[in-house]
């Protein structure tokens, strides 16, 4: 999160929001990680688009997409294309985790590595 810390120091209000796991994500940058249900399971996080404003209230424990209600209702959960899915699983050592990716369940259910 060092790049986000730099943005904070310049006065920007930034946070991390993901339905995935992030090693080392804790610190001075507010974060909502392991958001469930995930986009791949039809979760609302899959309706978020580039340019949407997201409000993370760490005191109240809320996460809201500030999107017009009609626009939000009309959106479908975005599915990863085969090309993006491939790019997400290859390069920078990602191949090392292929076995785990094949056995992963939802954040609520967890994962096993011995199957």
Q: What is the domain tally?
A: 2
- Helix run count: 4
* Largest sheet descriptor: 2 strands, parallel
CATH superfamily of the largest domain: IlvD/EDD C-terminal domain-like
How far apart the termini lie comes to: 33 Å
How many β-strand stretches? 4
Q: Would you identify the CATH architecture of the largest domain?
A: 3-Layer(bba) Sandwich
Order of helices and strands: HEEEEHHH
CATH topology call of the largest domain: Glucose Oxidase, domain 1
Strand content: 5-15%
Bulk shape? globular
Write the layout of secondary structure elements.
Blueprint (H helix, E strand, L loop, with lengths): L1 H8 L6 E2 L13 E2 L21 E4 L4 E4 L3 H6 L7 H8 L8 H6 L12
Parallel strand pairs: 1-2
Antiparallel strand pairs: 3-4
Structure, explained:
With 115 residues, the chain is an alpha+beta fold. It folds into two domains: 2-78, IlvD/EDD C-terminal domain-like (Glucose Oxidase, domain 1, 3-Layer(bba) Sandwich); 80-115, no CATH class. 24% of the residues lie in helices and 10% in strands. It contains four helices and four strands; from the N terminus they run αββββααα. The chain has helices at 2-9, 69-74, 82-89, 98-103, and strands at 16-17, 31-32, 54-57, 62-65. A two-stranded parallel ribbon has the order 1-2. The protein has a two-stranded antiparallel sheet with strand order 3-4. The longest helix has 8 residues, at 2-9. It is globular and about 40 Å long.
């Amino acid at each position: 999160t060092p790049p986000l810390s730099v943005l904070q120091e310049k006065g920007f209000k930034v946070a991390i929001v993901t339905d995935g796991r992030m090693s080392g994500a804790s610190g001075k940058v507010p974060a909502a990680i392991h958001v469930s249900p995930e986009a791949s399971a039809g979760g609302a996080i899959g309706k978020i688009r580039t340019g949407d404003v997201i409000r993370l209230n760490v005191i109240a424990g809320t996460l809201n997409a500030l999107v017009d209600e009609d626009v939000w209702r009309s959106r479908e959960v975005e599915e990863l294309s085969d090309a993006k899915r491939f790019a997400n699983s290859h390069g920078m050592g990602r191949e090392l985790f292929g076995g785990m990716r094949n056995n992963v369940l939802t954040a609520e259910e967890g994962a096993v590595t011995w199957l």
